[in-house]
Amino acid sequence: MTTAVLPLRYQVTDRRDETHDTVTLALQPVDEPIAAYQPGQFTMLYAFGVGEVPISMSGDPAEPGLVQTIRAVSAVTAALCAARPGQMIGVRGPYGTDWDLPGVAGRDLVLVAGGIGLAPLRSVVLSALTVPGMCRRILILIGARSPAELVYAAELDGWRARGADVRVTVDHATAGWTGHVGLVTQLINRADIDPEQTSALVCGPELMMRLSAQALCEKGVAPGRIRISLERNMRCGMAECGHCQLGPLLLCRDGPVVTYDLAASLTATREL
Amino acid sequence: MSSVSPADLAEHEFLRGLADRHLAQLARVASLATAKPGDRIFEEGSRADRFWLIRTGRIALDLQVPGPQRLLVETLGPGEVIGLSWWAPAHRWEFGAAAVQPTTAFELGTGVVIEMCEADPALGYQFTRRLMTVAVHRLNATRIRLQDLYGGSPPPAGGP
Question: Is the ipTM, as predicted for this complex, more than 0.85?
């Protein structure tokens, strides 16, 4: 086991289309696996001959192999999304900070996800649901552009059946949609939240995370009990190259997951 | 029409903290309305002469567009106000509304509420301030929705 500089070979064993531009890949090591990971950490995935990108873990850490959800927004991610079962992918990691699941044990866990931001939180959901009673309550608030842009849509009823309170809102409803329409922050405003008992994990585009964290703070949740997952230009994954610097943080090492008391000022500061 | 007590109204988010005498005034003219999923509450373009304070359930605002489907604009739930168009000329509903879940709400006629507010500026001030707060929050939410909150910025590839 190693956190190697060189990528280790993994084979795509399964592939699932989540949306028109998002794919979930299941990966198994061909040789040595990467070290065990915690929910919230990421790997550098290498599409051979194309390039490398940081992608969060989306699987159950207790299960062998990796599950990673990728949205095609660049040449590298498009190549990864196009990978078929049997294809090789390079993997480095795991890197970065995690969601601190031991710290939420026994508490009310509120997850707020925007768009593909549900991907890094899926590991949390699977871990928390695997251990009955780990959390007093699991409330999952999901925002998406439209029903068709919802990732893991086929899994949500299963999460509900296992005890999670899952609420989904979309910006643009389509025919047949009977759920919420509006911002994910409105789901926070409407939720019955016990601020003293709540730990919140928020993931999505940065503006969405900032607004969601603010809404949680207005509910009385302490900023130190809110964690968000920040993204910058991660390259080396080992805090050597400095590309992912945000203020005093190198996010590949000091992030991606940070508490909102630390992140609030950083996310509200204009960058050069 | 079911009777509504001042205590019932005091529990609603929109009226929380309102003076007892104002709650008592409103309770005299409020009724409890119920709707089943699919029930139309009001239609776009018709006269806006009532508003509702949702207690339970969910209401969808919609717009008529070409074809059989209506375009869902927003859903509103417990603690929220449905019906703001009565507040400003031309006093016609800008959207339609329908229940998407079994819903209960306090219903208030706007004519009598406006009369009360004109007769008692303190109540008028409270109504104006609260309705303005609702309108500002909805305006801000609309502005943010216009920014394509979930799709336009990192994390680009599934995180981190």
Answer: no
User: CA-to-CA distance for A244 and A53, rounded, in angstroms?
Assistant: 13
CA neighbor of B145 nearest in space, from A180, A184, A118: A184
Q: Tokens 């006629």 identify what position?
A: B109
Q: Which residue is listed with tokens 């929109």?
A: B14
Residues for chain A: how many in total?
Answer: 272
Q: Does domain A8-95 have CATH number 3.10.690.10?
A: no
pLDDT of residue B160: 44
B37-75: pLDDT as tens digits = 999 999 999 999 999 999 999 999 999 888 888 899 999
Chain B partners within 8 Å of A143 (Cβ)? 149-150
Domain extent listing, chain A: 8-95, 101-267
Beta bridge partners of B96: B62
Interface test with B, best of A97, A152, A171 (most B CBs within 10 A): A171
User: Which of A112-121, A233-242, B38-47 is the least confident region?
Assistant: A233-242
